[in-house]
Amino acid sequence: MNILIMGGPGAGKGTMSTRIVKKYHVNHISTGDIFRSEIGMETELGLAAKDYIEKGLLVPDEITNGMVKNYLEHLSDKKSGFLLDGYPRTLDQAVAFDKLSGGTMMAIDIVIAMEIPFEALAERVTGRRLCKDCGAIYHIKSQPSRQEGICDQCGGTLYQRKDDTVESLNVRLDEYTKQTQPVLDFYEAKGLVKHINANQPIEKVWADVASVLNGYSFG
Ligand code: AMP
């Protein structure tokens, strides 16, 4: 089972992705996480992507497509399928991925579309904090860690993403509307999209996501 999860910045993709991976044992491919890790390791790919990411702009398609192809080809456990998180994000990426995966084990089976009004996003995004070590996600108001700045799960330090500012959010929202809506339309035309109301408490959103995925077989 191959899943694509889509949603604007702050829609809760990261939180739902963690739960989906844990419950359904699919490989998690988050292009944002991969870029952040490459930037942290100061690789050539990281250096090429850094400026775009810090400004909230999309990394060019040829860099991103090549990176995803490489990750998928090197998955250690191809049989259990994958969760694509943050890719494809432009129509060109969707078409490129369709060419690569159509009719193969890598084709996308279902698209989860996390929907939330734009007004609700600013507070979510500017209050988000992540663990440097394990990647756990917190929110200073709705999901604070027990001790400020420290991860409950592993004791790691929490940090704020450089692009989780209001300025960067506006650019990212604009990119999302212009670039990513056509991707949703592309999968909608294939009949693969399931819409989820992401403007609800986390447990309710998760119940809705799980109820959609429980209708499919994994493994
Ligand atoms: P995310 O963690 O998914 O919000 O991604 C963080 C940033 O990484 C985005 O704002 C983009 O700069 C970059 N990025 C992630 N995925 C892609 C993609 N599929 N295409 C282009 N840029 C991406």
Characterization of this structure:
The protein is of the alpha/beta class and 219 residues long. The chain contains eight helices and eight strands. A five-stranded parallel beta sheet has the order 2-3-1-4-8, sandwiched between helices. The chain has a three-stranded antiparallel beta sheet with strand order 6-5-7. Helix 1 crosses helix 8 (202-213), helix 2 (31-40) crosses helix 3 (44-55) and helix 4 (61-73) packs parallel to helix 5 (91-101). The longest helix has 24 residues, at 166-189. The protein is globular and about 50 Å long. Residues 9, 31-32, 35, 52-53, 56-59, 64, 86-87, 89, 93, 163, 172 line the site of adenosine monophosphate.
How many β-strands, per DSSP?
8
- Side by side, the strands of the main sheet go 2-3-1-4-8
- Span between termini: 7 Å
The overall pLDDT average reads 91
Helix/strand class: alpha/beta
Instruction: Report the radius of gyration as a whole number of Å.
Output: 17 Å
Beta-strand percent range: 5-15%
Query: Are any ligands bound, and if so which?
Result: adenosine monophosphate
- SS field, number of helical segments: 8
